[in-house]
Amino acid sequence: MIDISKTGSFVLGDRAVKRLGYGAMQLAGPGVFGPPKDHDGALAVLREAVASGVNHIDTSDFYGPHVTNRLIREALHPYRSDLAIVTKIGAKRGTDGSWAPAFSAQELTSAVHDNLRNLGLDVLDVVNLRLMFDIHGPAEGPITEPLTVLAELQRNGLVRHIGLSNATPRQIEQGRRIAPIVCVQNQYNVAHRDDDALINALGRDGIAYVPFFPLGGFTPLQSTALGDVAEGLGATPMQVALAWLLQRSPNILLIPGTSSVGHLRDNLAAAELKLPSDAITVLDRIAADKRDLSAGNPSAIKPRS
C-alpha cells in the first residue's frame, strides 16, 4: 500500500496534515455543476482517499452547488478526528452554472451556514475567502469588508481558521492585519510559477501554500518536457507534476482532484516518486521557456524532433 506519510506533514491551522491531500471539486457534475455521473463512485473515491491516509480534504458548498459537501458527509460522517476539511466562500453559481462573486455580509454568512449544514459540522476547520476580482487569477481589489465579516464569524465560533484563495501578495499582507491567515490557495504548477517568491515568504512565516490545477485545470498543460521526464521515470505526467510540487517547498500542501479511484491511487503514488536533480532542471525550464515565448523570444521555440 502507498505510504503518503513519506511526503511529510505541515501545519494547517492548529493541526499537522499530510502534504498529499484530496480536492473534491471534480466529484460534482460537468463544469463543477450538478450531481456526479456516478454517485456511488464518488463516495468510493472519498472513502478510498481517507483509507489511504489522506487527512486534508478541500471542498466548497459552491461546488455543485451543495453537491460535494453532501457527498463528503454521506461518505465520511462521522469524521475521523484527524481529518481537516477545508472549504471556501466568496462565490456563487448561477442557474446556468456560471460563477459570480458573493461578497456581501449576508452572502458570506449564509455560505458559512450552508457549509456547516451540508457537511454536518458545528464548526468549520478552515474557510478560505475566494477572491473574485478576476476569476482567472489573482487581481487587486478591496478585501477588508468581506474578510472582516469572516473574522467575525470566526470570533463567533463558527470558523476555526481563515485562508485566502486567488489572492495577490498585497491582499495577503492586508489580510494578515485583519486576521491570522493559515493558508493561501492559488494556481501554481511547473509551468505557472508567478507565486515563486510568495511561496518562499509564506514558508518563512509557517503559512501553508495550497496550489490548485497541478496540470493546468480546465486548460491542461501540454509539455513535451514533462512527458519526456515522466516516460523516463516510468511515471505519469501528473505524478511528476505532483512530485515536483512536493519537492519545491515543504510548506506546499497538495489537493489533486479526481472522480476515479484508479486515478486517485495514481495521484497518491506521487508520494513515493523522488525526482532526480537532472529531471528537476528540465522541469524548471518549462516555466522559463513559457515566459520567453510570451516575451517573443525565438530562442525558446524548439524544433520538433
Structural features:
TIM Barrel, globular, 305 residues, two-stranded antiparallel sheet, single chain, seven-stranded parallel sheet, alpha/beta, 10 helices
Descriptive account of the structure:
The protein has 305 residues and is α/β, with parallel strands linked by helices. It has one domain: TIM Barrel (Alpha-Beta Barrel), CATH 3.20.20.100. Helices cover 38% and strands 15% of the residues. The protein contains ten helices and eleven strands. A seven-stranded parallel sheet has the order 3-4-5-8-9-10-11, covered by helices on one side. Helix 6 links the parallel strand 10 and strand 11. Helix 7 crosses helix 8. The C terminus is likely disordered.
Topology (SSEs and partners):
Elements: E1 9-12, E2 15-18, E3 22-23, H1 39-51, E4 56-58, H2 67-76, E5 84-89, E6 91-93, E7 99-101, H3 105-119, E8 124-130, H4 144-155, E9 159-165, H5 169-176, E10 181-185, H6 196-204, E11 208-209, H7 224-233, H8 237-248, H9 261-268, H10 277-294
Parallel strand pairs: 3-4, 4-5, 5-8, 8-9, 9-10, 10-11
Antiparallel strand pairs: 1-2, 6-7
Helix pairs in contact: 1-2, 3-4, 7-8
Show unreliable segments.
299-305
CATH architecture: Alpha-Beta Barrel
CATH third-level topology: TIM Barrel
Rg, please?
Answer: 19 Å
Instruction: Tell me the β content.
Output: 15-25%
In CATH, the homologous superfamily goes by the name: NADP-dependent oxidoreductase domain
Main beta-sheet annotation: 7 strands, parallel
CATH hierarchy class name: Alpha Beta
- Give the number of helices: 10
Q: What shape does the CA trace take?
A: globular
- Arrangement of strands in the largest sheet: 3-4-5-8-9-10-11
Total of domains: 1
The SSE order reads EEEHEHEEEHEHEHEHEHHHH
